[in-house]
Amino acid sequence: MNDDSSIVRLAAMIRTEAARLRPGDRLPSSRELMRLHGVSPVTVSRALARLAAEGRVIIRPGSGTYVAPVLKRPSDAVDLSWQTVALGDRVVDDTVVSGLLTPPPEGVIPLTGGYLNPALRPTKALSAAAARALRRPDVWAMPPLTGLPELRRWFAGETGGDVTPSDALILSGGQSALTHAFRALAAPDTPILVETPTYPGVLAAARAAGLRATAVPMDRDGVRPELLAEAFAVTGARVFFCQPTLHNPTGATLTLERRRQVLDVARAAGAFVIEDDYARYFATAPVPPPMISLDAHGTVVHVNSLTKVLSPSMRVAGVVARGPAARRLRATHLVESFFVARPLQETALEFVGSSAWPRHLAGLSAELTARRDALVTALATRIPAAEVHLLPRGGMHLWVRLPPDRDEDTVVEAARRAGVLVSPGGVYYPAEPSGPRIRVTHSAALHLPELVEGVRRLATALDGS
């Protein structure tokens, strides 16, 4: 018998013996194994080493060899690796979106996020509206598939122009509306045009729909129409997504003249404009009318949402479109989602039809103005080297250029360690960023003192980064 077969045979015998014992029991000593099986010290040593590598025994020099605890091995787990092949490379990256939605840890000041601090939400009035809605006789009945007629009428009225209630469709929040619009208006593996920088949730939704986002530069007055025309010509895109009012993240508001120019450019290209009008209710100074109110050719698909201005759980949005595009949107929504829950629609209708709605907007406007001004002052005082892109006419954010020698990811991480959260600028770009930037939000902090303390922590992080 050669040495290898002796090792295998001895290991098998010891394995059988260990299986009869309990974890922690002591096995025969090396000397006993040599005597019992007539093998050499080398054979015993190698057999025990093999069993130790298998996790069946534990060798304790000077003490002996013991039966190892029974552990669940990776081979005992369900093997799901087949899914990697089945799923292919259609990866949906939710990293940025989940980061923006995750609440900050205790003691960390949020200078980021897309929703109002709970103190700024009309929680009591919403609860009262919900209580009234639940007393409606048909509240648990199936709603009309396109939404409650009264709610569609309200969203149509918010757009102005010649929009009618039949042009409106109720969907579950702005993000869902944008996703539906992308899928309805653009075929997979085709380009769409977006402002650069732009809202990262749009980039994620476009990628999930199999679309390629192409950047169109903007300045302090919004997207540049001449470059938009060039982008349409170069890419052949048939969809342009934009936030013409209080753009996220820059705060820019597209002028009335440019709104008309953008519509002319899109019409010449035979393309749609998806107008994300989420921030209209955050305006603290007059802003131009929605682009859809200027559109007589069915170019614009208008999205308006109550989520950000009221509550994260008020996932109600109105999408206005005309012609075959409207029919396509209604069909895709019906196939994918059926309809928006009626109690939520009834609650939204109760709230916007009550005196609480204008009261909330008036109070919010005053609070956002105070917060914006406090944030601008704190940044100028504490971080004079950081340049605010522009003073927006409202909104929730400031777009800040860092000194050119700073790395934004390093700054963001240093800020996190200092106890304040800000958004890195890079996630807002569909192409290469134009320099180190951060987005700083004033609507998520609890109050003005916390906002100022957040800037102080950010300044500390910048000094140490």
List the helices and strands and how they pair.
Blueprint (H helix, E strand, L loop, with lengths): L2 H18 L9 H8 L3 H13 L3 E4 L3 E4 L14 H6 L7 H7 L7 E2 L12 H12 L14 H11 L8 E4 L1 H13 L5 E6 L3 H9 L3 E8 L2 E2 L1 H11 L3 E4 L13 H14 L2 E5 L23 E6 L1 H4 L6 E4 L3 H14 L4 H11 L3 H27 L4 E2 L8 E5 L6 H11 L1 E2 L1 E2 L12 E5 L6 H17 L1
Parallel strand pairs: 3-14, 5-6, 5-8, 8-9, 9-10
Antiparallel strand pairs: 1-2, 4-11, 6-7, 10-11, 12-13, 13-16, 15-16
Fill in the keyword field for this structure:
465 residues; alpha/beta; 8-stranded mixed β-sheet; 4-stranded antiparallel β-sheet; 17 helices; 44% helix
Kindly describe this structure.
It is a single chain. This protein is of the alpha/beta class. Strands 4-11-10-9-8-5-6-7 form an eight-stranded mixed sheet, sandwiched between helices. The chain is elongated, with a radius of gyration of 31 Å. The model has no long low-confidence stretch (mean pLDDT 91). The longest helix has 27 residues, at 356-382. 44% of the residues lie in helices and 14% in strands. The chain has helices at 3-20, 30-37, 41-53, 82-87, 95-101, 123-134, 149-159, 173-185, 200-208, 225-235, 256-269, 307-310, 324-337, 342-352, 356-382, 408-418, 448-464, and strands at 57-60, 64-67, 109-110, 168-171, 191-196, 212-219, 222-223, 239-242, 272-276, 300-305, 317-320, 387-388, 397-401, 420-421, 423-424, 437-441.
